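During the reporting period the student researcher (J.K.) took over the structure-prediction task from the postdoctoral fellow and processed the backlog of single-chain submissions. One of the processed entries is reproduced below for the supervisory committee.
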Amino acid sequence: MRLLYLPIILMILQTPVGSCRSNAKLVEIEWKEPVTLPAYQDGNSIGIAGPVTGIIDDLFLVGGGANFPQKLPWEGGKKQYQEELHLYQLTEGGDCIYWKTIRLPELTSYGCSYSTSKGLVLAGGEGANGISSAVWLLGKTHTGITVKALPELPIPLTNAAGTAIQNQLFIAGGETSTGMNNRFFSFSLNDPSQGWLELPSLPYAVSHAVLQARSVNGRQELILAGGRARNGTDTSQLYAETWAYSLDHRTWKKLGKLPYALAAAQAIKMKDENILLLGGDDGSTFTQVEKLLGAIQHERDSTKRVELIHKKNELQRNHPGFRKELLVLPAHESQWQFAGSVPFDAPVTTILIWWNNNLLLPSGEIRAGIRSPYIQIGQLNRSR
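J.K. obtained the following C-alpha cells:
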C-alpha cells in the first residue's frame, strides 16, 4: 500500500502570500493507494470526467461521466457519455471495496450530485441528447439501487455548482443551451411538492464554480467561489471571486478573492466549518487553446490554418495538468489561505466527498482529454 503523508500547514506569516492570509493550524492527510476504476472491454480503465458520484449510507457510487475511449480529441476522437455506475462498499477505515456495476437511468455527466439522508440525488448535466433538466433520487437496497424521478429543474443545466444542507438542495449558475446562467434554485427533499424555488440571482453568470455551505455564528451561508463564463467567440472569463449567500437575509456579500482565477475545482466543508478547496484550472492552457480555436475559425489561408491547428493540438497534447494546491477558507473568515498541495495529478470536473473523516476524490480530468482512472482516498489524521 502506498502511504503518502501530506502535511497541510497554515503558517503565520509577516506578509500575506498573494491574497491569502495565514492562520496557525496543522492538518495532515494520509493519501492511500488509490482504487482503480473497473476496466472497459478492452481491459483498460481510462476514467471519466463529470462523474455521477456520492454516498448512500456506506455505499460509494461513481459512474456516468464522459471520456474519449477510442482516440484523444486532437486525434479525431469523439466524446462518449457512459451509462455504467460502479458501486463500492466503504469500510470504517476508509477502504473502498468494489461490489457491482449497474446502469444509470440516463446517460449523464457534468451534473450535480447530492449525498443526502434520503439517498443520492442527481440533477441536470448533459448527455448524448444535450443538456438535461432531469432529477433522480437513487436509494440503496440489499441487492442494488432504486431509482425515482423527482421534479425537474426549472431549466436544463450543465456544469452548475451544487451543494446540500441536510435535505435542502441548492444549484447555482451553469450553462444552458443558449449560454451562461446566473439563476439560483433550491429544492427540499422533505417537501418535494414545492418543486424548485428560485432564489436571488448570483452576482455573475458562471459555470464550473464551487458552492459549499458553512455555519457562521450559528447562521448558515453558502460560499460561491471561482468558475468561468464562456464569452461567445472571445476567450472565456475566469473568476477569482468569492461570495457568501446568507440564507437568513437572502443576500449576497463579497468576500476575499482566491489567490488566482480558478475553475472546475473541488471543495468540501470540514467538521470545523472550514472549507477545503482542491485543484482547479487557472486557464493558463485553456485560454491559449481558446485563442487558437478563434484564430482557426477566422483564418482563410489553408496553410496558416493547418499551422494553427497543429499548434493547438500540440498545446493540448503537452498539457501540463491542473493546479495541485489546496486552499482553505477558515470558519468565520473571508480570506483564503494556502494549505499545501496533493502528491498526484489533481483532477478537475469531479466532486470531492467527505465520509467518516476520509476524502474521496473519484476520477475526473487530469489533462486535456485525459481522465484519471483512480479513486484517490485520503484520511485526515486529525478530526476536523
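The committee noted the following: The longest helix spans residues 302-317.
J.K. will present the remaining backlog at the next meeting.
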